[in-house]
Amino acid sequence: MIRKFVVASFVVFACLCTLSPTPSSAAYPERSIQLIMAYRAGGGSDRLFRGFQPFLEKKLGQSLLPIYKPGADGVIGFTEIANARPNGYFVGILNNPSSIAPAVAGNAQYTVDSFTYLGNITYEPPILIVAKNNALNIKNLDDFIKYCKNNPGKTTVGISGIGNDEHIALRLLHKAAGISTKVVPFDGTAAGSVSMLGGHIVALMTSSFAVLNLIEQDEVIVLGVGSEQRSKEFPTQPTFREQNVDLVLGGIRGIVGPVGMPEEAKKLWIDAVKSLHTDPEYLEFAKKTKTMLLYLDDKQFKEFCQDLYDKYKLLWDEEKW
Known about the structure:
globular, alpha/beta, 2 domains
């Protein structure tokens, strides 16, 4: 009798074990997700992250932990994303053309195909700014161009890294306006802003989102915006083009992971990024913070990056940076 009871109990226990979910079958995500950024805290990527963080966490059902990997003009961070474990718990912000330029120049261990593309979030045209009370009394783009022509190769202009969209925008400005400047690279926009406000450099080529606080506090003069036409976010800021300087460019920021992410994780992230662009609360937040949104799905995002690579390769072949 005892033997029969033991056997019966074992059978029931075995059945329960079979019906219970194993750790491998648990729904993704089971724990917090690390989000890698290639730049320091406080910069444009970090501000973008802080904006979308609560909205994506709600969609994903887990917290996002920021991981900062600055250095080498973003290459360290982008490489970290590409080489991360492809288990869905490591993703990152991909800045373009910042990630593309090192790959074109042969300074990166990754390529366009080194990432799983999950969707793009923002578009940011470059802007050229000077301190409002600058020592040279530059008030507009004409003043800046005249000063540069009178001081060829001496006008100091800061950028946040060699080969990124700001650097390329400055190169295009040289060509379009017939000027030359002294390029001063910084490790991020924050350091360049401090240097410009302190009078150590004349101007800064950056993105509007990265220096939004300076614009709102009326500490700087926007000399030109690299968009096709004036945006609704900055209706009073003149474009380069309307000032007879043919400069149109833009940087994008989106979410990627390493190649080989589980399909479940990939699908959830693609849906989450897409949802940002239809979430009324996030759209209102973006409007208030003047965040320029540009949704590209996973395929469009990768196609954009490949097209950018091809264009930058032509620029590199013409003149190396």
